[in-house]
Design brief:
Shape: globular
Order of helices and strands: HHHH
Number of helices: 4
Number of strands: 0
Strand content: under 5%
Distance between the termini: 53 Å
Length: 76
């Protein structure tokens, strides 16, 4: 039987926007360290990094939608 905490963790990792992974690739840092930073910063600053995280997720999803909709010039 799976641990409920592990189930919640897998759901969040699958449903997350991929922000931590993206930053990890750009900065060459493990994504788990970036996630820990967001968690600690959220506790210390009463949630403002969480708002920034959600905005970054919205922008990344918007960029993916624009790239997906915009085809090449020859697709007409």
């Amino acid at each position: 039987m799976n641990n409920p905490v592990d189930n919640i963790k897998t759901v969040f990792e699958r449903q997350a926007f991929g922000i931590c992974e993206w930053w990890g690739e750009k900065l060459r840092i493990r994504s788990s360290n970036i996630r820990i930073f967001f968690i600690y910063a959220s506790f210390l600053t009463i949630g403002s990094p969480l708002i920034i995280y959600l905005i970054m997720g919205f922008v990344m999803n918007l960029r993916k939608m624009v790239k997906r909709q915009r085809g090449s010039i020859w697709d007409m």
